[in-house]
Design brief:
This protein has helices at about 10-35, 45-60, 75-80, 85-100, 125-140, 165-185, 200-205; strands at about 65-70, 105-110, 115-120, 155-160, 190. The relative contact order is 0.15. It is flat. The longest helix is centred in the N-terminal third of the chain and has 22 residues, at about 10-35. By secondary structure, it is an alpha+beta fold. β4, α6 (about 165-185) and β5 form a beta-alpha-beta unit.
C-alpha cells in the first residue's frame, strides 16, 4: 500500500513552503561562497579551490598557477569619481576577466581591490602569457563609459605550486608578488616561486 500523497489539496501548501525553504537555503549557501559586490567567489571559497587544486596536482603531477591582481590607483578613482564608480570598476574587472578566462579557471575577490585567479594545468610561462593577455584585455576596455578620461589597469603577482605547498602559503606568496608589482609602479607582472630548501641542493651536490 502506497503512503505517497498524490494531488492532496492539503499537502500543496506544505510542498510550496518546502520549495521556498530549499530556495532560501540555496541562496544562503551561494551568498556564503560568493562576494556580494561582484558575484565572484569570495576569499574563503577561492582558497578552498586552491587546496583542491593542490591535491589534484599532487595526484597528477600537473603544475598550476595562482595569480593575484590588484587594481591600480583605485583610491584615486574613488576620490575623483566617487565610491559608487569605484565599485563599478571592481564589477567591470570581475565581469571582463570572467569573459576572457577559461571555463576551468577560477576567479574570486580576495579583499578590497584585490582578486585571485586559479589557472589549472598551467606552467609558469603559460601563466605569464595568460595574465599578460588579461591585462591587455582589461586595459583595452572602453573605460570612458565608467571612468571618463581614465584607463584602469591592474598589477599582477603570479606563482606556481611547490612540493609540500599549502593553499594559504600560495595565496600569500602571490600577494607578495603583487605588492612588488605595485611598488614598481603598477600595471606590471611579478612572478615569485617558493624557494627550494638548501638541503635539496646539498643532496644534489653529493
Amino acid at each position: 500500500m502506497s503512503t505517497q500523497c498524490d494531488g492532496c489539496p492539503a499537502c500543496e501548501p506544505l510542498r510550496a513552503q518546502l520549495a521556498d525553504k530549499d530556495q532560501e537555503i540555496a541562496r544562503l549557501v551561494a551568498l556564503a561562497r560568493h562576494d556580494a559586490l561582484t558575484g565572484v567567489l569570495n576569499r574563503r571559497s577561492l582558497t578552498e579551490h586552491v587546496g583542491e587544486e593542490l591535491q589534484r596536482s599532487s595526484r597528477t603531477g600537473q603544475p598550476f598557477c595562482f595569480a593575484v591582481i590588484g587594481v591600480d590607483q583605485l583610491k584615486a578613482v574613488n576620490t575623483q569619481f566617487g565610491n559608487d564608480t569605484g565599485d563599478l570598476v571592481l564589477q567591470t574587472i570581475a565581469r571582463e576577466s570572467c569573459l576572457l578566462l577559461r571555463t576551468l579557471d577560477r576567479f574570486g575577490r580576495i579583499d578590497g581591490d584585490v582578486f585571485g585567479i586559479i589557472l589549472p594545468a598551467t606552467w609558469l610561462h603559460q601563466g605569464v602569457l595568460a595574465m599578460n593577455r588579461l591585462s591587455a584585455f582589461v586595459a583595452g576596455f572602453d573605460w570612458n563609459t565608467v571612468t571618463a578620461g581614465r584607463t584602469v589597469t591592474f598589477s599582477t603577482g603570479l606563482t606556481t605550486n611547490a612540493p609540500a605547498e599549502t593553499a594559504e602559503n600560495m595565496v600569500q606568496r602571490a600577494l607578495k608578488a603583487m605588492a612588488e608589482a605595485k611598488a614598481e609602479g603598477g600595471n606590471r607582472l611579478v612572478t615569485l616561486e617558493q624557494e627550494l630548501p638548501a638541503s635539496l641542493f646539498a643532496a644534489m651536490d653529493d
